[in-house]
Amino acid sequence: MAENDPLRAAMIEAAERQLASSSDHEVATRAVCEAVGVSQPVLYRLFGDKRGLLDAVADHGYERYAALKAAQEQTDDPVADLHAGWDGHMAFARANPALYQLMFTPRPWSHSTARDRVMDLLVAALTRCAAAGALRVEPRTAAQLILAANVGTALDHIARPALFDDPALSHRMRDAVFSHVLTTTTAQNDADPLHTAALRLHAQLDLTGTEALEPAETALLRRWLERITQPGRG
Amino acid sequence: MAENDPLRAAMIEAAERQLASSSDHEVATRAVCEAVGVSQPVLYRLFGDKRGLLDAVADHGYERYAALKAAQEQTDDPVADLHAGWDGHMAFARANPALYQLMFTPRPWSHSTARDRVMDLLVAALTRCAAAGALRVEPRTAAQLILAANVGTALDHIARPALFDDPALSHRMRDAVFSHVLTTTTAQNDADPLHTAALRLHAQLDLTGTEALEPAETALLRRWLERITQPGRG
DNA sequence: CACAGATTCGTATCGTCGCTAACTCCTAGC
DNA sequence: GCTAGGAGTTAGCGACGATACGAATCTGTG
To answer: In sequence order, what are the residues at sequence separation of 6 or more whose Cβ sits closer than 8 angstroms to the Cβ of residue B24?
Structure first.
């Protein structure tokens, strides 16, 4: 489906260029086809639809996003990586506002998986934090919180042209959400040490796995840990 | 400009209905005109443009939003009002997803002032909190934080159809942002009591004013208080 | 009442958009 | 050489946003 088609890639890049340069953040299929020197039906053969083209643009945007993340994260301090990840997210939004809105603004159609994959990246980063004992809630819950706050702050920043108090606002939001999700680094005075230990073991299982238990036993252990970390669940 | 025009109101309501019922959250000027039994040029005479119509729809949405807020807030506990305001915001987004996106998603054009007016409402609610000594930062900064988090959470909720862990996520986000912005209710162990006192006086001046000082003196006092509450400012 | 000016609305139309049917061309396989 | 199928083009359809222009209606004055 997505084999190495240079024409397809050229059309995606042309669409992204026009999306960024257009004043109303809109793109015309005719203009995209004309930019790469082909006719309209080739677009509809490659992407099936205009929304198919936009989904491809969004997925291509995720590729750049993931490359940017892979280049900067992954030190030995997962919490520091998390902070850098927030700032990198904001920088990506600032650098590509139109593409960012295409990726993260909820369109009722849109089969693009860009947002879900960004979420997966965030869950992975948070799982590393949980394995280090730095997380107070499950990685998935923390990821939903952080991503919603990050997107909300980024869209707010894109909306207003230059209200000049931006970095402070982003860092305030980052600290607010992180302090609610991470354990205090200095003192580990947690009210429920069982909860944190279960979270930590669960994350460690996700990261490295274990050969000491049979697969069925590991699955059951996972469910037990989940019942410990999220008690109120049907 | 916005005199009591029943035809104008009918077109706004028709547009809002079509916006809510349409699958792609889109509205056609022809359909709006046909719904109220007039022709296209009347739309362009009343609203000037399609974006003018959408701006009017967004402003009308703000009216309903403001009415909903005025009906529930304003008890004697401004912090409780703030919590109710967050939940009311989420309920409004859940009830009118298409209208909510029109109001709060950043469109590059859009002369609608709906978002700014919602921000003003939030600043007012936060000023009451500050006058009660419950705020740790300036009302405007807190409003930017809260609104960005609230919109981000609401858009995230609208995007995914039913990931069933919604109220918990909304309340988590609310607690995270509020705990970063409000003072701890039990103990008032603030690191900078001068800062909090200045914030409180500034809010009290905004709310009630004073006759003990001349207007010029009050203005100068305001600037001094601002220099105390936000030290790093050109 | 008559009439001029302004306002308001409908008819018809333009240019553009997303999208598709039908045809042509080029290449692979026997 | 011939055919089958993929890849591309031309031409066009219906719907959209927006507008020019004339008809109808209202308003105020003599």
So the answer is: A108, A109
pTM score, two decimals?
0.85
**Measured between CB atoms, does B21 come within 8 Å of chain A?**
no
- In angstroms, the first-to-last Cα distance of chain B is 39
CB contact under 8 Å between B106 and A176, yes or no, is no
Nucleotides of strand D within 7 Å of the protein's CB atoms? 7-12, 15-21
- Name the percent of chain B in helix, strand, coil, to the closest 5: 70, 0, 30
Which of B24, B115, B168 is nearest residue A109 as measured by Cβ atoms? B24
Residues A69 and A85 sit within 8 Å (Cβ to Cβ): yes
Longest CA pairwise span in chain B (Å): 65
Give the integer Cα–Cα distance in Å for B133 and B102: 35
Query: Rounded to whole angstroms, how far apart are CA atoms B148 and B165?
Result: 20
CB A79 within 8 A of CB A185: yes
pLDDT, tens digit (0-9, with 9 covering 90-100), for A40-69? 999 999 999 999 999 999 999 999 999 999
- C-alpha separations of A78 from A50, A149, A193 in Å: 40, 19, 21
* Residue B11: C-alpha distances to residues A158, B40, B43, B45 (Å): 30, 11, 8, 12
Question: What are the backbone dihedrals phi and psi of residue A2, each rounded to the nearest 5 degrees, phi first?
Answer: -110, 50
Q: How far is CA B13 from CA A11, A58, B6, B64, B65, in A?
A: 40, 33, 10, 12, 15
- pLDDT score, position B234: 46
Comparing CB atoms, the residue among A148, A158, A176 nearest residue B153 is A148
Partner residues linked to A182 by β-bridges: A135
Task: Give the pair of three-digit tokens for residue B84.
Answer: 């109710």
CA separation for the pair A189, A201 (Å, rounded):
18
